[in-house]
UniProtKB/TrEMBL annotation:
It comes from Aphis craccivora (Cowpea aphid). GO terms for cellular component: membrane. It is found in: Membrane. Keywords: Membrane, Transmembrane, Transmembrane helix. It is a multi-pass membrane protein. This is Acetyl-coenzyme A transporter 1-like. One of its GO terms (biological process) is acetyl-CoA transmembrane transport. The chain crosses the membrane at residues 5-22, 34-62, 69-87, 134-153. GO terms for molecular function: acetyl-CoA transmembrane transporter activity.
Length: 210
């Protein structure tokens, strides 16, 4: 988690210095060759970290899903995950607009805060220049929130990971202690990937072993 947040700062730093690296000569855009290497490296590491987080999350979903319900349980977890991903993204994009501040080049009183003010500035021969980019403000806010959130809930997340698989099973009625079995996969099963109910010998519960 901390690695992803830290790499986000690297990503923002590259974006911030990009206008100083890329130059416009008359009608030709000059991009140094080393910039492509830096951009590719930052982009690959960013995607790699995101992919690893996604794989670990889906692996956790697979581990705790009740095999009796097949893909239904996995679909529920994935739906909750994607809702938690897309809803904040929409709010963050709106926050970028809110924290971006501009003003007209020939009228300091015109802050270009509405489409009408922007049109008025352009009509008078000016242009709306951004003096505070909301992208950087939003990135700073989200990074701080991410650090604080993870610091608060890190132990809670670890406790969820350490729970026995039986805690995630779906039961239609209260079961006796000898009816609770944890799912496991055995290599000796006649069908590859067949989920069989059994009990880990380290568990205080009792039942057949895989």
């Amino acid at each position: 988690m901390y690695n992803v947040l830290a790499w986000g700062i690297v990503y923002v730093t590259l974006i911030y210095f990009t206008p100083n690296i890329i130059h416009l000569n008359s009608t030709v855009v000059s991009v140094p060759e080393y910039y492509y290497l830096i951009l590719g490296f930052v982009y690959v590491i960013n995607d790699l970290l995101s992919f690893l987080m996604l794989i670990m999350l889906f692996s956790f979903f697979y581990q705790i899903s009740d095999p009796r319900f097949g893909g239904t349980y996995m679909t529920l977890f994935n739906t909750l995950y994607f809702l938690g991903w897309f809803v904040p993204n929409t709010l963050v994009l709106k926050l970028v607009d809110i924290t971006t501040f501009s003003k007209c080049s020939n009228d300091a009183q015109n802050l270009c805060s509405t489409p009408d003010l922007t049109s008025m500035c352009n009509t008078n021969g000016g242009s709306c220049n951004v003096y505070v980019d909301g992208y950087y403000i939003t990135t700073a806010i989200c990074t701080v929130i991410g650090l604080v959130w993870y610091g608060i809930f890190k132990n809670t997340l670890k406790s969820y990971q350490n729970l026995s698989v039986s805690h995630w099973m779906v039961y239609s009625r209260p079961l006796d202690i000898d009816e609770v079995h944890e799912p496991c996969i055995t290599s000796s099963s006649p069908l590859p990937g067949l989920a069989m109910y059994a009990l880990d010998q380290r568990s205080p519960l009792h039942g057949p072993h895989c």
